[in-house]
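Self-study notes.
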Amino acid sequence: MKHLTTIALDAALAAGASYADARVVRSRRQDIVVRNNRVGELEEIEDLGIGVRVIAGGAFGFAATGDLGAEAVKKTAARAVQLGRAAASVGGEPVRLATAGVYDDRWVSTFVEHPFTVPLDEKLDLLRRCATAMRKVEAVRVAEGYLSFLAERQWFASSEGSRIDQEIIRSGGGISATAVGAGEMQVRSYPASFHGQHLQMGYEAVRGMHLVENAERVAREAAQLLTAEPCPRGRRDVILMGDQLGLQIHESVGHATELDRVLGMEANFAGTSFVSLDKKNRFVYGSPIVNLIADATAPGGLATLAYDDDGVRGRRFHVVKNGLFTNYHTNRALAHVAGDDRSLGCNRAEGWSHVPIIRISNLSLAPGDWELDDLIRDTEGGILMETNKSWSIDQQRLNFQFGCEMGWEIRGGRKARLLKNPSYQSMTPVFWGSCDAICNNKHWALWGVTNCGKGEPMQTAEMSHGAAPARFRNVEVGIA
C-alpha cells in the first residue's frame, strides 16, 4: 500500500500543492449482539481506501476514494488540490503547520490473541451463556450481550518525508439486564454502560472481563433496583466510581479542551467551549489534587498510537496540573494559536474518507492515595454512584447533569441503602474544585469510549479515560 501514498503525493505536488499527505486505511470490524439467547445483530465490515490532504494556495483541500487504481488515486490528489485552491479563494489566514519530525517507522499495538482468529461460534456461545445466566432472575425481561472487535492498519506518507505504518487491534464487550416489575423498568450493565468495556488488546480483553461469572449478579441487581428507594434530593458528598468518572472526564474536560472547539471552528455537533484562550496557565479548573493527563502512549488505550494523522509522535502531557489548566488538545495547524511551537499530537480521522480533526487523547485523572473502603467510611451521609445511565451538558461544556444506574447511601461507614435513578448536577470548575479525595492506583482503570461523535459530517472516534473512585463535596443530587 505504500506505493499508493507515493502516487498520491507525487500527483498532489505536480498539481501545485505546497504540502501533501496521504493515508491508506484498511479496516475490519465485527459487532455481535445476542438478546435473550437469540442473535440480535451480526455484522462484519471490511473497508479500504485512501484520503489525500493538501495545502494549496494556503488552504487545506481534502479528497478520498475507495478506488485504489493508480489513475483514480492521481485524480483524487488533483481534486484535493482543486478544493484547496477553492477554499483559498474565499480568503482567511493561510494554514501554518507547526514543525514536526520526519519518521520512517512501523508500529503494532500490543495483543496476545487476535480476535478474528477466535471462531464466531465461540463468541456466540459466550454471549448465550451470559443471557442464560441473566434470565435465571425472574424479573429480567431482556438479557443482552455484546462483543465488538476492530483491526485497522494505516499507511501514512507526507511530502515532508515521513513514511509511517501503524496497526491496531481493539476488543471489547459487555452485558446488560433489563428488569421489569413494581411499575418500574431498571437496567444494570457490566462492566460499564453503553456496550461495555473496550481496550486496545486482543481477545484476552474479553476473557478477562469474566462476563458469564458476573451475569447472574448483574441480573439480580437490576431486579433489586425495581424496589429500591429513589435517590434523595439535595446536597450531598458524592463518590463516583471509575466507570462513571470516565464519562465525566470525557464530557467536561476532554471536549472542553479541544482547541478547534475553543476557537469556534467546531460547533456543529456539540457546541464550543468555555475554556477560552486567556485561560491557559491561568484558570483554576479543579482542586490542587486534580491532575488530568492526556497520554497517547497509554497501554490499552483506544487512542494509543505511535503517531497521529498529522504524522506527529504520540505523547503524554497535562491538561490540568495540580488544579491549573495547562494545555489544549492541538494539531499542527492550530498549535501556534495556543502559543506552542509543536503539536501535542491530537489530530485523527475516522478511516480514510474523513479529514483529520482534533480529537481527545486518552485523558485520565491521576490516582490519589485512598483505599476505597477508607473513603466510604470517611463519607458519612454521602452517596456512591456507578455506571452511567444518562447525561446532558450545555453547548459550552459548563453546566451538566449525569444519571447513574445505581447508587448507595453511605451510613455507618458502609454502603447501607440501595438507591435507584441517582443523578448529580454541577458546573465544570465548581465540580472539579470540590474533589478532595481520589482512590489509589489499585482502583484505577482505563475505560474505553468507542462512540465519540464530532464534526460535520460527523466522525466517530475512540479514546480511553482512566480513573479511580473519587469524592466530590457538597454536590446537588436527585432523581435521573
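Second protein, same conventions, sequence then structure:
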Amino acid sequence: MKKMYELLVVGSGIVGLAHAYEARKRGLSVAIVEQNARCTGASIRNFGFITVSGQGVKDTWRRAVYSAKVWRELTQLAGIKILHQGTWILCQRPEAVEVAKAFLKTKMGEECTFYEKISYKDLPRLGFENTGNLRLEESLGVLYSPHEFRVESREAIPRLADYLQTEMEVDFYWSTEVLSIDDSSILTSNNRFEADRVVICPGSQLTGIAKSYIRKHHLELCTLQMFRLKVQEGFILPGSVMTDNSLARYLGWAELPEAQALKDRIAKEMPEYLDEGIHLIVVQSADGSLVVGDSHRYGSAEEVFASERVESLIINLLYKVLNITEHKVMERWTGVYPSSSVSDALIEKVSPRIRVAIVSSGTGASTAFGLAKDNFDEWLSND
C-alpha cells in the first residue's frame, strides 16, 4: 500500500527538519525518510552554535536572522536548553581591531559593541559575568555580539525531531533508504510513497539519491576536527569565544576592505593555521566541558584520520585566549559538510515536484530554517 503525503523530505539533518517544520506551518502533510536509525551527520557533530554576526551579508545573514528567531521559539516549545548566549571575539592584533570597528558601521554590526582595553574593568558592572575567564590582557579590544546562542546539538536535534513527530504530526521513517524517485512516486527500502512534492536534503551524502541532480555544482566535502575538554573546576565562559582568525574567515567580517590587512598578517605569522583552515571557536556544555575546534580540509571524500598536529595547534590558540590552567581531552570527532566555492547554500529545482536543498558552507545550524522558508515561499507561490 502506498503512503500519501503532500511533502516527502529525504534526510533528517537540520535542513530536512527545517523543511518539515516550515511545511507543517503551511498546513502540508509531511513525512521524513532517513536512511540511518537516527541523525548521525553534521547536524549533531557541530558546536550547536547559532551564529548571526559574521555571516555572509546577503542571503546567508538574512536566513541566519530568521533561523535564530525560529530556534529561540523551538527551544521553548521542544524543551531544548540554551546553554549560553552572546559571542566574544578577542582582537589580538591592531588589524583585527580595525575590522571590528569597521563591522560596527555596517547594518549587521548595529547591535554589537566593541570594548576598548580601558573599558574591560567595566564589563561586570555592565552585566557581563565571567569575563575574567578570558585572557583580556592579551587582547587589544573585544568585539561583542548579543545575537548568538548555543544548544547541545546531540540533544537538540533528537528533541526537535520528537517535537515535530509528537506535536506537529510529522511522520518519520527511520532506517529507510530512498532507492528511486519517479516524479511523484518514491521507492524506498521499506515502503513506496506518493508525494505532491519531494525535497532531498542529503547533507554530506553526495553520492546517494541526490548525486545526479547536483553534479553540476561541483561540491566538495569539508572535514573538520573537534574535541571536548575538561578544564579546571568552576571555569565558566561568558559566552561563545572566537579570535582574530575568525574575523579573517567568516565572510561578514572577512569581506570587509579592512580585513585584507588582517588576512595578510595572519598568513605571514600563522601559515600553518591558514594551511589547515583553523579558526578557534570555543563553547561550553552544561557539565562545564568545553567544545573546541576547528579546522577545515577539503576533498572529494571525508578525511578518516584526525591529526594530532592540528589538535595541538588549536589547543595552543585556546590557551592564548582563555584563562585555563589544565585540560583533559574527553572526546574527539570529525565533522563533515558539503562545501561550495561559489555559494553558501543551494536549492536545485529538479522538476516542478522535486528539489534538492543543501547548505554548502557549514552554516546549517544557523541558516537552515531561513533556507527552508525561502524555498517554500517561492515553491508554493506557483500554486
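Instructor comment on the second fold: The first strand starts at residue 3 and ends at 10.
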